[in-house]
Amino acid sequence: MNTQDQVRELCRRWAEAEQLEDVVALDEMSTPDFEVVGPAGFVLDKPAWLDRFRTGALHIRSVTWQDEIGVRDYGTAALAIGRYVQDGEYQGNPANGRFRSTHFAILRDGGWLLAGLHLSTSVGP
Hints:
Elements: H1 3-20, H2 23-28, E1 30-37, E2 43-45, H3 46-54, E3 58-73, E4 77-90, E5 93-94, E6 97-108, E7 111-121
Parallel strand pairs: 1-7
Antiparallel strand pairs: 1-2, 3-4, 4-5, 4-6, 6-7
């Protein structure tokens, strides 16, 4: 499997783990210094990102990572840009959306890990 396919598969598994609220899998698929920039501009480090699932504050009914998934290979780093569609709730409030997503992956010990994720609100078709 080439880098593009490996990174697409990592991102697909990440979305699946989020939908399952699988903190162990999300932890294993990300670097210790993993950070997320959310659609409203907030920044969460790895513990804060995972705690949303651990505490039950975030509940995901469905999440897909789809269409227009482009992966750029830089050897030991890769950038994947796609579309992220989420149906869920955060602290009892709707947390639904269509986002443009950028996943930053690095090659470590023969496998790909996510080092960062950036979500921005997707407007238009």
